[in-house]
Amino acid sequence: MPGENLSRDEAQERAALLSVEGYEVSLDLRSAVGDAGGEPRTFRSVTTIRFRCADPGATSFADLVAPSVTALSLNGRDLDPSEVFDGSRIVLEDLGADNELVVDAQCAYSRTGEGLHRFVDPEDGEVYLYTQYEPADSRRVFANFEQPDLKAPFRFEVRAPEGWTVWSNGTGEQHDGVWRFAETKPISTYITAVVAGPYHYVTDSYERTFEDGTRLQIPLGAMCRKGLAPYFDSDDVFLVTKQGLDFFHDHFDYPYPFGKYDQAFVPEYNLGAMENPGLVTFREEFIFRGKVTRASYERRANVVLHEMAHMWFGDLVTMVWWDDLWLKESFADFMGTFSMVEATRFTDGWITFANNRKSWAYRADQLPSTHPITADIRDLEDAKLNFDGITYAKGASVLKQLVAYAGRDAFLEGARRYFKRNAYGNTRLGDLLSVLEETSGRDMAAWSRAWLQTAGVNSLTPQVLLDGEGRVGELAIVQDAPESHPELRPHRVAVGLYRRAAGGALERYARAEVDVDGPRTVVGELAGSEAPELVLVNDEDLTYCKIRFDENSLATLRAHLGDIADPLARALCWSALWNLTRDAILPARDFVDLVLRFAGQESDIGVLQMLHAWANSALTYYAAPDWREEGGRLLADGAVRQLRLAEPGSQQQLVWARFVAAVASSPAELQLLRGLLEDTAKIDGLEVDQELRWAFLEPLAAHGAADESVLAAELARDDTASGKRHQVRCLAARPSAAVKAQAWATVVESDTLSNALVEATIAGFDQPSQRELTAPYAEKYFAVIERVWADRSIQIGMDVVRGLFPSSQDSPATLDATDAWLSAHEDAPPALRRLVLEARDDLARTLRGQACDAAAGK
Asked: Which of 34, 128, 762, 837 has the smallest CB count inside 10 Å?
């Protein structure tokens, strides 16, 4: 629909004209249960909006995406819906100074995770509802002015089926089947929320007495589907929640402003979580049905704290428009790790940040779609795609550096002033920079120009010259930038010099901090040091850059990478080596060899999991095609060997077992997996729980060793929502032309699958070992993506365009076909072109990597 994609210009014009005084929203959700008679399910939504207009007599519009509108009135005047509602907008003519709009609509339940999502639990037939709106899907549930700067208080009331509980942002009470909720503070439409259904709900409370004697009590709640209740470790969720509230109260000097704090773990969720004030929603996969590693608990704690940081950065103070999305997401990403390291048991969180989050940022910042952290967001489709590695992880990395640049105390004092000055309001870049200038005395404009308003990632490479006595005569850092983004930025870095100690460990013996500025910077403080075996630029991960190595350091890593004593330094070296592989500087077979030789020594479980993912990607994408079979055999042999060597019952054992499943292809490896499933093979200490069973079944299905009947039997064993997703993925993974045709048709030609099952089908369809089977779909992909983008929701469109790109058809012909589509579709929606351009860039990088690896094999 033409009106769905709100532009920035339209939003600015509307914000200049209107101010909203309040919403009253009444939803009747009783239609969620029972027989719909084959008709699409809808619910009644009645909204009253009171707002002012700065130019009486002017025309504007309200947003609503709904199948139909039953009745409309503006200032007591009935309007004909057929004349003023086009399916996405309601035209409002002849506005008064004070206005009241009443909209009675039939809105649609969602199957895509956008708007009001309806989920039927296959285990017990219960129905669960939840909302998800960011950036602009509240208009699928109630009429509104859908932009972040038109904040207002909200009152919700909900009629629900008997036996259900309903939650919203405010506290609620139920009388005669109607749930009424307290009015919210002024908030944006996209963070309003409703969760309804027979959820399992547990409670706790948080109390805090401040220095002035003021006492704060926050009711805490946590919920999940009844089927997940046996696995729900709510005590740990509440522990991290309380630790986070303590941390933010200690450092922000602004008490949590939204009353209660509920956290809902919901099914078929598209995101990790969403910061709705008073009612945070999470994907239910954060409730672990089987044994997981410490890294999984750390990830959950990080997300809990990320969303909590949003209560201040994003909810209390909100960006005017999505250009300044970083004002909430970059800060929440940084604060999630900052608070986790200082307030919880996960004190090694910066290692995960350096190895995992920054990896996401480095990839995004080298795509053709890279953008400054403060982006140019023209419309809502742009906004949807900018929830990316730049806005989150690069922004957080830059904030980490800002803390070093401005000083921790100045940074936090700036945040405190920012909250107090802008509470319940909207801000732009300059509003934050001005308070940071006040508190730090630093020139924030220059820092912003370099770090927030330019794109691309710099590379820092050490140059070491030894004197006649074998000591460091001069050590310099050379800074490079790609031609497409030539900005050389100022970096505050630590440079570490490492040598092997008596016991063989590589240890740092000298360190210096220096401001890198320009193409070459001499580190004078290290002159005269003993000759290093390894020079680590950006030791301690103070800045955002790609680390490079001099030849001597690279040789040391090839021989002794596993001997680096400090886990953060080791993680930084692994990340740098992966960047070298992606940049076609280090052959993929060399990276695989490093993983085979040194990953078994890795103590940080999150780093080990990343190494497994990178090694598999190196083999799948960057290895020369004629080496793939040999490389796959080496990787699988190494994985099985490490599985058998791992300490029984350890996290390492579990991670190696999952990696064996990821790389298994030979009859021996598949037989091992089958034996572990059927209890005819044994690995001491390895508990094959239900989640691990599905992990073992996917490679068996993909290699024709587990047919439909086997997968049906496993679903009968695990007849749950999670089991259904796993089964759908495994079914689509089977090596059959008919299977691939059916999977393609259910995703591309039909809209009957939910978002979660679309994702599972795509994951199963795309098996790198089945390149010949999926080859016919390369041409079909380019024929259908424009139609899919036009006909489906943006979430499903993104899933299809990204997930079905023929990346396994890694040949120049596929690159040519991609270029041909881009040339022939210059007028396609910019967001669609961006997705194809990103996939094209990944494919070109794949081909460069394969050429590098092939040259190494000669």
From this structure: 34
Which pLDDT tens digit goes with each residue over 404-458?
Answer: 888 899 999 999 999 999 999 999 989 999 999 999 998 898 889 999 999 999 9
Residue 2: pLDDT band (50, 70, 90) is: very low
Structure tokens at 239: 């522990």
Contact 625, 586 (CB under 8 A): no
With 0-12 CB in 10 A as exposed, 13-18 as middle and 19+ as buried, what is 78?
Answer: exposed
d(CA 365, CA 397): 12
DSSP state of 71: E
How many other β-carbons are positioned within 10 Å of the β-carbon of residue 809? 20
Nearest CA among 267, 476, 243, 418 for reference residue 342: 243
Q: How far is CA 842 from the centre of its chain?
A: 19
Distance between CA atoms of residues 357 and 214, nearest Å: 38
* Contact call for residues 324 and 427 (beta carbons, < 8 A): yes
CA dist list (Å): 63 to 137, 139, 153: 10, 6, 17
Measure the CA–CA gap between 53 and 431, rounded to whole angstroms: 26
Half-sphere exposure of 479 (CA within 13 A, CB side): 23
Positions marked catalytic: 307
Q: What's the distance, CA 604 to chain centroid? A: 22
Going by their DSSP bridges, the two strands 68-74 and 18-28 should be labelled as: unpaired
Task: State whether residue 8 is helix, strand or coil.
Answer: helix
**Residue 430 and residue 318: Cα distance in Å, rounded?**
13
The answer to whether residues 643 and 660 touch, using CB atoms and an 8 Å cutoff, is: yes
Q: Which helix (H) or strand (E) holds 157?
A: strand 154-159
State both tokens at 693.
């069973």
> d(Cα 457, Cα 582) in Å, to the nearest integer?
14
Tell me the helix, strand and coil percentages in the chain, rounded to 5: 50, 20, 30
